[in-house]
Amino acid sequence: MTSAQQYRAAYFVHDRKFELAECTLSAPAADDVTVDIAYCGICGTDLHIFHGAMPHRLGDRRVLGHEVSGIVSATGDQVNSVRVGDPVAIRPLAPCNNCPACKSGHSHICHNLAFLGIDTDGGFAEKWTVPANTIHKLPASLSLREAALVEPLAVACHNVERGQVKPGEDVLVIGGGPIGLLVAMAARAAGGKVTVSEINPGRLAVIQSIGFDTIDPANQDVAGTINDITGSKGADVVFEVSGSQAGVDCMTEVAAVRGRIVMVAIHPEPPKIDLFRFFWRELELFGARVYEPQNYDQAISLLESGDIATDTMITDEAPLSDIQKAFDALEGSTTAMKSLITINPG
Ligand SMILES: [Zn+2]
Ligand SMILES: [Zn+2]
User: Fold this and answer.
1) Which of 48, 51, 111, 335 is an active site residue?
2) Which pLDDT score, from 0 to 100, does residue 180 have?
3) Residue 108: nearest ligand to its CA?
4) Domains in the chain and their CATH numbers?
């Protein structure tokens, strides 16, 4: 038994405010692991919560953050899978293991899924204690800074897996924000010929800088351009990442015969979908939510391979004491991709 230790955590206390607090660490339970957090990325979901979404899931205050990398600093008595000193990422899902989804092998979309760092305290803290089955060991060759991208890249890998992207297929990603760009890079790594449609000029330049063809829907006809590129076939796989009605209109318009459309964005309102195109071209629509363990493994090897433009992705870094400023700065930023909170980079 180790004695109690103090550590700092950033609590979100609603109304767009964070408060730093000293917490007391207790020894991990038998199946738990304590991780000294190196980096924790700010997710789009954290930003939605910052803006007032899902208050009922947070209680009076909550340590947010789930895109972490770090070093194991303590393990429970039953834990054999990792050791103190191991570099790790955390897959922040706690399924019930008892519902129809869990029993059919889809525990990542458990009916009663708890998301660590939203339904429980998370990773904007010096230490985070989590169940051992959420831990993925990192190779020594991967920096902890880059490894902060494992969680969002695992989302992208799950999307690409759902869309079954094959080498040589024409792929359109609608929306080139942080997740759209990771989807584009994961689809390219799977062999897809990827075009990204994005409306923001600042982002367009970034996307072009890492070698993607782009379409600006404000000034170009997306479907016409895709038809030109593909000899009027259309895109074999379309990822809707924009979360806009215009994106949903576009996704059915550009899809090839028997094209696959993956719904990546979480739309604030149920969008109107042109079902006629589903009949006409025998399209398929795929839902995709979070990730499965293998998507973490894929994300880790993709980062290791160097196929992910991590320096382009990571646009902002701030220490834990500046978390308020880091969230405030994302307000209306058109250039930010991934903003990291640097906690204990080692
Ligand atoms: Zn996230
Ligand atoms: Zn379940």
Assistant:
1) 48
2) 97
3) 2
4) 5-149+308-342 (3.90.180.10), 154-287 (3.40.50.720)
